[in-house]
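Quick start: what a row looks like.
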Amino acid sequence: MSTRGNAFPFDRTIRPLQKPGRSREPEVEAQIQQVFDNPRLLWDILEEPDDFPAKRTCPLKEETLVYFLRELIRHGDERGWQIVEFLKDRVAGYIWKCIQPLYKRDRWGSRAQECEEDILSRLTEVLPSMELSHEFWEVRFWCCLRRLVLNIVRPKRREIQTTVPIEVSLNDLEYQEDRDARLIDRHTLTAYQRAIIAEALAQLPDHERTAFVLFHYHEFTQQEIAEQMSVTDRTVRNWLSHAEERLKAWRD
């Protein structure tokens, strides 16, 4: 039977967050109310085929979708699990960008595949969870997703690094992880500026370039870099400082 236009099996009053002082974004609160007023905004994306435009251009924010999937599952409505799968599909591209470097480093791809499976499995657990520790997904979805991905990727990355030597080339600049964690947002640069950056990095000594790329592009901590390169944390800090001084001309 079609779900289009069906009412929700719970009260239309927006559920408050559990942690005192915590609140949703006004845009999310407004979207929740809009969906209450017009449930088709939600049901349409569940009923249409994967290639249907409404599915690809769904205007509902991730935090809004988490709110409704939790309420539906909490009230025994299986449609909540459809939203879980929809969200997993929506973030699949981001997850792939984060684990792509693992596939390039892992000769057989087994650890990288395990990493991808672990992320998706963990999402299936935390998205419907009503526990206080998972509440922030309704407030800052992408912040929570980044943290979840990094917590799973980093151990796998260390496993791979113990068996595969670190070799950082200029091709490593093509790894596309979360832009917020980068020193440089490549997507705001022109082709000429990217060429300047590549040329500048090529002038760095090997050890400084390796430390710089691992720290700024692959989100290694200074301690992790020190362990991999068999030096002290202080040495890594000095390398990074020297590299940044060398690159300061084009950064400014």
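That is the whole record. Residues 26-160 form one domain. The radius of gyration is 22 Å.
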